[in-house]
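Hi L.,

As promised, Pyridoxal-dependent decarboxylase:
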Amino acid sequence: MDRTLAADLARLPELLEATRRAAADALATLDTRPVLAADGAAPHSPAPLPEPLPEDGSGADAALAAFRDRWEPRLSASAGPRYLGFVTGGATPAALAGDWLTAAHDQNSNSALDGAGQDLERETVGWLRELFGLSDAQTGTFVSGATMSNTTGLAIAREWLGERLGVSPGEDGAAVLGPVRVLSGAPHSSIAKALSVLGLGRSSLVPVPTLPGREAVDPAALDRALADSPGPAVVVANAGTVNTVDFDDLRAVAALKERHDFWLHTDAAFGAFAALSPEHAHLTAGLDAADSLCVDLHKWLNVPYDSAVQFTRRQDLQARVFQNSAAYLGPLGSHPDLVHLTPENSHRLRALAAWFTLRAYGRRGHREIVERDIACARALGAELAGDPAFRLLAPVRLNVVCFTLADDPAPARLAALREAAAAEVFVTPTVLAGTPALRAAFSNWRTTHEDVRRAAQALRTAAREIA
């Protein structure tokens, strides 16, 4: 064994303790350090020149010191309460503990030949199914994020199209399907990416008109578009759009199956968590009608990156797409190993962090996080609506505030606003109905109304600076 490696092994408890202290220091300063480091505020800030690969290593202690010196100061406080960019959760204490143990046990939970990890994942999927009000007809599998969840769901949809046409794109390629139509009102960008990866093509995505002033699909327009589609189609419904958290009427969309032949994929990356709030659960009515369903867990479940779950009613088609034949793997059977259900032949035991946080805090604890974040989003919306420097572009339906400058909302001015406020609050740019805008997304378990006050004040100050 390499001498340095052997020395680290002999000192492993001390090294883990040093790492624990470094992690505790990083988390303890989330509330006080800049949300975005100064050299990270600008989108094209220069990175430090890379160091050459060392010929002889200096051990884990030296590596930890080098990380803390060179890289830690550049990292954002994305685990903290005022990182409101994208839709970024944090990691609850239990989820963090579960993630550390995931690395320590280092399980590749894909095979029944070593099946404990698979069993833990299936138990966790069952808890998530119950959390979102889904029926037992939905089977689920962990994947890396919403993009992979959407891609997996649409891969199953692609095989369903083949089943309807008497062919198998999994065996013979997507070309056997001929032209494909994928209909959606306001799809997330990952849908087009998935269609490209799956060989269906970005041009197969057909936009359907949305309701006036909304991002929700117009069911009547979708009805007409389906009537104009030759043969079976795919519909991508949205349960929470990224700009305004708008929801398609999932029951109305599903009811169109009485007249049209289509696969229903629902993207509920973070909108599914509305099911936890009695006030907002009606938004997810019809979620279980999906043939495939995307839910992202490193958003509002507050588990570390990367983690999502993919549900489907047709696990048989899923296994047909992703089956992996090798002498060392088990047969498909009626309960296929996880290796037969996703693009990954190997994946870490992602389910453990989710298992920990669900076991630790239960439905009630996670409902409190969701409802507090919604209340914080409403509070920021009210603060900005009452300030003449800003204009809300949509009502605060759930956990995202979509806003812009009241005067001259040019992209350059919005970028200047973001950069001026970035030490205290981080928001991300978007465009809504042609208007450049900013989004503040609340999904972190740490966020409180005090963070809303600080974020609002930082945005007001930044608006004055760029005026």
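The chain is about 40% helix and 10% strand.

Thanks again for sending the construct details.

K.
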